[in-house]
Amino acid sequence: xxxxxKLGGSILCDKNIPYSINWENLExxxxxxxxxIEYYKSKNEEFxxxxxxxxxxxxxxxxxxxxxxxxxVDMGKGYWEIQKAMRKFNNIxxxxxxxxxxxxxxxxxxSFITFDxxxxxxxxxNAVEKMLDKGLIxxxxxxxxxxxxxxxxxxxxGDHALPFLSKKLNPDLSLHASDVDGVWDLNFKIIENIxxxxxxxxxxxxxxxxxxxxxxxMHLKVMECYNLGIKTIIFNGNKKRNIYNALLxxxxxxxxx
Length: 257
Ligand code: IP8
Hints:
InterPro entries: AceGlu_kinase-like_sf, Asp/Glu/Uridylate_kinase, Fosfomycin_R_FomA-type. The protein is α/β, with parallel strands linked by helices.
């Protein structure tokens, strides 16, 4: 089994309080990931995992300070300030995983990833792949990167990372743990499947992201996966056992395919 799991910042933090960690969720998530690792071990089945996490109340409020009319300004300071906020957050996440003997190792996008002239990600995954082969669990986080197309900067969202890595590395499971049960339709019912037949309707129900967010919320999540043709499930990572169940291919949510 090879899974890529994105942990939304909203399930790891309280997005309204800068630099806040939801310790209860973080601990539960670490426990459930450890249990999934043990499950596959008990079945003698190989288990490879990449974890991606978002910016939460670390990256978003800091990035927002440097955004003026859609452009990043004063980035001599902004680049390292955003990077530093995300490094702090990533350290906390990784340390908690390591507390449960999960071999989590950090991958920091701002050090080597860019968006190129065509808005494609320039992301060499060789080290990530070799880490997986060695039984390590790379943990990649949302970050600030250089955007060659606009000659400015851009947020590398976890919602870019998950579909990009899924397209490139072809996992068995591509999982979006968010703070809702899936994608709602206009009547607040969860849409079970998103595909070419209903994408136009779905787009009508996708709200813009929370105002504290500098990235695209549910719209970015759905469209990045849909456009790249990645089969992904969006589910509620706040609910106990959902992370474990998702890693065992057994969770309810919205399936994009
Ligand atoms: O929460 C955003 O990542 P996301 C990263 O996955 C920063 O969109 C630095 C705001």
